[in-house]
Specification:
Length: 489
């Protein structure tokens, strides 16, 4: 089965944008962007969408799905030029977050720069007036978040009744954010005759139902099953006490290879705390989450993109769909409650086929979450035990003395806590650090139970579903950064 998929993907890689029936102004914009060939979802989806078919795209961000819908939409609008309806749009794209909506609108502008079509974006948290004015004369492509769009529809500043093409992006995320009711309200106002494009990374039952309601004889295109991201990203789990996580994080940033890092926390307050702790340790950091104003978020993202801050500390929702090139590492300061979020998180560092590195911290009360993640991703993530690590203890003491920062309280996982781990017991009984009873870890694999176990060949990726695992322990005080091996990927 797998070799056949690989062959198909290779054949698709040979497809050129010119084979897909795209018009010259679009090809020109793509060449200017430096895109050489379509990604698999683009190769599969663009011809059908150009022909007017509905589409069910099962794909996550990072696959090039935005261009997969933006390019054929732009072409269809340009081929059949007509004025956009007043206070309405010709193509409507719904996106779950403001950041993603902004990015999608930017993509439309970039790819459509030689076509002279109009693009606008509408989302909450900012004033209505400018949005109303932008929409008054009609717009070709409108990208919106559902809540604000409905507000505009209720105030009659937007009428979606003449929409020709409707895109629902990140449908599963819409479900997570409680947007299904607003979406159904919007869909009810759309004309019956329209083209629908529906994208979701996963297909939980409710999303399948919504797709069934919306789509007519869709072409189904599925790319990048979640395992692909999992395979591309070099992953490691570090077991560590919750209160020592910030010392461990500071240690990671000692490695200059950690140049552009997204750090995930479970809560907004946690994000602020972690960003503050990094700043106090001399690492430029910015936090991004739902309590930040639009301006603050934009400034944080811009500073991160420009390389002015090394660390962007984010909650899942704030980071969803954010497309930032060349993220060197993703650090999960806390594991997510939903296993799928783990895959979304690590996907931030493996955009458009690139490889990346991801480190997840796991405190004892997060072991259940880790087990679920390994089940969903069908991999055993290489792990290292940094609990009871005197280096971290000492570093934490120094941090506390220097900065006067209080020990943090853990953000509680929602799932039940697990009993104290066997490896702690093992160490007390003097287990062999290289795979004795004290070194047992997930998936029944033996793990070194003592201090710095990574580095050297230990830092190899989970590759091919994580069958590889760390080998030797790095000697204490050994030269070079324990993370230096990560950077080659
Ligand atoms: P998306 O999945 O739409 O968020 O896209 C992920 C990233 O891939 C974005 O940075 C795009 O600019 C980039 N991208 C999309 N299509 C291509 C392509 N054909 N070649 C190279 N990069 C691409």
């Amino acid at each position: 089965m797998r070799p056949r998929i690989a062959l198909r993907e290779r054949l698709q890689a040979l497809t050129q944008f010119t084979d897909l029936g795209l018009a010259k102004p679009l090809l020109k914009a793509l060449a200017e962007e430096g895109y050489q060939a379509p990604t698999p979802i683009q190769a599969k989806a663009i011809p059908g969408v150009l022909a007017g078919r509905d589409l069910l795209g099962i794909a996550q961000t990072g696959t090039g799905k935005t261009a997969a819908f933006a390019l054929p939409i732009l072409q269809r609008l340009a081929e059949d030029r007509r004025p956009a309806p007043r206070r309405g749009c010709r193509a409507l794209v719904l996106s779950p977050t403001r950041e993603l909506a902004t990015q999608i609108a930017e993509s439309f502008k970039t790819y459509g720069r030689h076509l002279g079509l109009t693009v606008a974006v509408v989302f909450g948290g900012v004033k209505y007036g400018p949005q109303m004015r932008a929409l008054a004369g009609g717009i070709d492509v409108l990208v919106a978040t559902p809540g604000r769009l409905l507000d505009h529809m209720e105030q009659k500043s937007i009428n979606v009744g003449a929409t020709e093409i409707f895109v629902l992006d990140e449908a599963d995320q819409m479900l997570d954010l409680g947007f299904l009711v607003p979406i159904r309200k919007v869909v009810r106002e759309l004309p019956k005759e329209r083209q629908n494009l529906f994208f979701s990374a996963t297909m939980p039952g409710e999303i399948g139902k919504l797709a069934g309601e919306m789509l007519r004889d869709p072409q189904k295109v599925e790319v990048t099953p979640q395992s692909t991201t999992v395979e591309r990203v070099n992953q490691q789990v570090l077991f560590v006490e919750q209160q020592r996580k910030r010392a461990l994080l500071a240690e990671l940033f000692d490695d200059p290879a950690f140049t552009r890092v997204i750090v995930f926390t479970r809560t907004k307050r946690g994000a602020d705390r972690v960003a503050k702790s990094l700043e106090q340790g001399g690492v430029e950091a910015a936090a991004i989450h739902g309590d930040k104003s639009q301006g603050q978020r934009e400034r944080a993202l811009a500073a991160f993109k420009a390389g002015q801050v090394r660390a962007l500390v984010a909650t899942d929702i704030a980071a969803r769909g954010i497309d930032i090139d060349a993220v060197t590492h993703v650090v999960q300061y806390e594991l997510p409650n939903v296993p799928e979020a783990y895959v979304h998180r690590i996907g931030r560092t493996a955009r458009a086929g690139a490889k990346g590195s991801a480190v997840a911290f796991c405190a004892d009360d997060e072991r259940n979450l880790l087990r679920d993640i390994q089940k969903v991703t069908r991999q055993a993530i290489p792990s290292f035990d940094r609990r009871n690590d005197r280096h971290l203890g000492a570093a934490l003491a120094v941090m506390g003395e220097l900065k006067g920062v209080r020990e943090e309280r853990p953000a509680q996982p929602h799932r039940s806590e697990q009993k104290p781990s066997h490896s702690a017991r093992g160490r007390r009984s003097g287990a062999n650090p290289h795979g004795g009873s004290g070194a047992k870890a997930h998936g029944g694999e033996a793990r070194p139970a003592t201090k710095p176990a990574y580095g050297g060949s230990a830092a190899k990726p989970a590759g091919g579903r994580g069958r590889k695992r760390p080998q030797g322990a790095r000697a204490e005080g050994g030269g070079g950064s324990p993370w230096s091996n990560w950077t080659s990927r």
